[in-house]
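Check my protein:
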Amino acid sequence: MILYTGYLRMSRTFFVTIGYIEWRKGQDILIEAIEKLPSNMLDEAEFLLVGQDTSVMAQELKKKTVDMPNIKICGTVPRQKIHEILDSCDMLICPSREDPMPTVCAEAMMHHVPCLVSDATGTSEYINDGYDGFIFKGEDAKELSEKIIWSIKNHDKLSGIGDRSYHIYETVFSEKAFEGKLLGYVEGMIGKA
């Protein structure tokens, strides 16, 4: 495991959210879910929010979390750091209110990282809840909090779930999968001609 210094403490479950901090992406839902965690669970988790952080919502979330030392809002980072963060985290959370197909979920799966996504993301269509990732009802901070608690209590199972999520990446999002689909479309069009 590569450590992203300053964000990960080995004894905690490390959750990451990556994306522009705005209403559509739902980071406020995540913060609300974190606030619902029992203190003993909160002590066992660390949360990193990565993304453009100058929006009004980002500023509000920074103020709201100023006294929550296990939540870090770091703004944008270089592309290589995204890969380092994904190599270091235990789970990616995508709490979007609407998000047709968040690229970051495919990237996480490429890194064998399980995703916890709202059912308002296109990625949720490919996840078998509890097997190769997790799904919660969009805007339901209570259910998101419950999934986070399960993940903390079952930290030892997250690696296996992440390995199974890689299969989603291989079969749906990889370059090879896209090539196969494109070739199928082209052959279908030629057949119709």
